[in-house]
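Can anyone check this?
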Amino acid sequence: MKINYSQAVIGYLRDAELRHSPHTISDYSITFRKFAEWLDSDPALDDISSDQVKTFLASLAQRARPLSKKTILNYHTGLSALWTWATVEGYANRHILREVPRPKPEKRVIRPLTESDIKAILGVVDRSTWYDRPGKIANDHRRPTARRDRAIILTLLDTGMRASELCRLTIEDADLRNQRVYVFGKGSKERMLPLSARTTKTIWRYLTKERGQDRLSSPLFSQRNGQPITRTSLRQLLLRLGQRAGVRNVHPHRFRHTFAINSLRNGMNAYALKMALGHSTMEMVRQYLELVQADLDAAHRRASPVEHWQL
C-alpha cells in the first residue's frame, strides 16, 4: 500500500505509543517533524531515497549551530524505527536507513562529581543567596523546595536512575518501609532499586512534612503547582544549585556517572551495576570499569612498597 510520509508518521506513532516511553515518543516526533520540514513536501514514503536521508543528516552537522554526532545518531535511530515499522507493515519496499551509515558519536569524557562537589551542592540547598532590599539588612531565607531538592539529589546519587525515570516516579513507587524504589525504565521495563537509610529518611521527611495529604498516584517529586517535575526543570534546578555551590556543569547524568563509578570503587559487581542502571548491554559499564581501573593503577603507583622502598 502506497502512503505518504506524513501518513506513515501518524501510523507509526500510534503504534509506538504502546511500546515506548513518552520521552522516546517525544524525541521521535521531533525527528520526524525536522525531516518533514527539510523535505518541504509530503512525498510517498517509497519515493524517499537513502541519499535524501544522508543529505538531511549531513545538513544537521553543517548548520550555524551544528548538532553533535550523538544527537544526529538519535535522528538516524528515529528514522530507522519508522522505516522498520513501515517495511514490516508493508508500507515500504525497502529499509532505506540500512543504506545510511550510522553516525559515530563523540566519545565524551566522563566527569563524575566528587565528594566535595556533592557536599557543596547540598550546602546551598536549604537557604537562598543573600539579598539586599532598600532600608533592610542583607538577609536570606529558607528555600521553599529545600526538602524536595535534597531528596532529589540523594535519590539520583543513591540509585543512578535516569532523569526521565525520576520524573515519572509516583509516591506509590517509593517503598520506604523496605528501603527501595520501583522504576520504569527504557522499554517499559520495571526494576527495583535499593535505597540507603539516609536517602529513605530524607524522602520520608519530605513526604511527611509537605506531601502528607497527597494520593499514592501523585508524583513523588512535584513542582509547586502539583505537576510532576519535568526533565527540563530538573536540569535547570541542578544547574542553578551547582552555580551557587561553585560546581560547574551539574546535570542529572553526572549523578548517574557518580553512582556508577563509586559503586564499582566500593565493590559492586559489574553485572549488578548493569542491572541497577537498566542497561541492555555491558558497553557503558565497561567504560566505567576502565575509569576505575585507571584509578587503581594510579593508586598502586603512589602506594607500591616496592617503589617507595626502591627495592
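Reply from J.R.: I decoded it. The first helix runs from residue 5 to 16.
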